[in-house]
């Protein structure tokens, strides 16, 4: 290996030695080529194409992508670039001023607003763009159909006593009894919302849950694991998992995570989805957000499996 | 005798410049290593010297970096996770790696040797995220079926994946070490009438001992530092493992998963850098040990 590479260097050295003029010419040509390449790159973006950077919530990433694709047809001069990573990632990016829009499946915390104002001089501006009924998923072979908030807390909260399916009166067909908790990593808005809505303010998750990096990963792991339970956006439902009906307390009726149950506030763990900008948006970003909240934009919310905003005036 | 043409000034200057450039390239590795260490240290140092709870960090398994009521930075479970996965990976990779090295160096014919070496190098070229993908999708199902365990993302999964990733390193360095044993050793041993097994067991392995040990240590370094594959294959659960079938979370995976959202210079951010220092120290110690041992080879 070493011998081979030295011989290559040696050959290169000889070539360089052979003619300095030639190498200078090559150098000039190289420079020219670079300049051309540079010009070509600048050209491909086009002088009139506005780019909107949109990052954040993993729950919303498919939805945001669908919006971006549709909007490219509505206004071809604007290109919306979407990436995920988690609401926390979007918040951090917006606070440092590197993106135009942050997607969030939770609200900004007071200290995060403060941080953004300190970094950029502008306060985050909130747009509600839809709703998500945070769904609780189990494997499709799990006989369980409904669950209470208390039971969820017993499974997920620090100090919670529920660790076996038999404690919920469930016998799994595969004979497993241990509840495999599947959760999200800590920069997820879903993780934040679930912690606050299910465990209560200030309480923590039980250690030992499998913390997945994405909303889709949660559903996939639950689909592959007979004894797992997980939480994720309602838009990630697939035929190989089952969404549980959730009730506030034992004895009260339970509700499925559906569009109607979200809009009439019967599903207990539904949450709004947000897009944030730095200060009042202007220009292309403003137009984009107006379109997102228009009928055309809201139709895509429904198509992506989430709940559109109720029609204003109702 | 014709006069020697004078070299143009430009050429002389260009040569000087290239010399300087090459020298810089040589030094840059050192600069980068110290630069990185300095950076990691600087980012974490503020907390490290002002009220960092070492006892909690090393002895508590409670990792709650973003709790709203009671923040705890206990890294014991993460350390145990890294240690368990690395240990299992080495238990699998060392015998396999060294065995393959011996086979390639001593047993197989020329063609088989070339084919094997290329294949092993190809194994090293597979990106770690692809390994992680294999762990997440293929191995998960296999482990569930084979062991009738509720979840296949665990120490076993991560260990096997890491073993597969460290084997190429162990094989190529181990094979080099065996190749470096002078042929006169082999000839002398064969002249004494030893069997092949005796030749390897009594002559080659002791002669190449240091090189083989270095191969193993570099494999360990690879396993400790690996991030993406273990993030996906181990289940990413904060838990001290009690069996091979428990999910764990490693030090590296924790940094990868949490650094993105930790506010810059917050305690959480600094603790992640302290974990980085811990990892740096571990791999540095391992590489140093490997290096010292290799030096031993040259002298011996």
- For CATH, the homologous superfamily of the largest domain in chain B is named as MetI-like
CA-CA gap between termini of chain A = 75 Å
Task: Please provide the count of β strands of chain B.
Answer: 2
> What is the strand tally of chain A?
12
Q: How many DSSP H or I helices of chain A?
A: 11
Give the strand line-up of the largest sheet of chain A: 2-1-3-12-4
Query: CATH architecture of the largest domain in chain B, please?
Result: Orthogonal Bundle
What percentage of residues of chain A falls in helices of 4 or more residues?
Answer: 40-55%
Sheet with the most strands: spatial strand order of chain B: 1-2
Description:
The complex is a heterodimer of chains A (314) and B (300). With 314 residues, chain A is of the alpha/beta class. In chain A, 41% of the residues lie in helices and 21% in strands. Chain A has helices at 2-18, 20-45, 61-74, 87-95, 110-120, 149-156, 189-199, 215-224, 259-263, 283-292, 295-303; strands at 50-56, 78-85, 101-104, 124-133, 135-139, 146-148, 180-184, 210-212, 228-232, 241-243, 245-247, 270-278. In chain A, strands 2-1-3-12-4 form a five-stranded mixed sheet. The model of chain A is unreliable at 1-26 and 39-46 (pLDDT under 50). Chain B is mainly alpha-helical and 300 residues long. Chain B contains twelve helices and two strands. Chain B has a two-stranded antiparallel sheet. The radius of gyration of chain B is 24 Å and the shape is globular. At the A-B interface, helix 4 and strand 8 of A face helix 1, strand 1 and helix 5 of B.
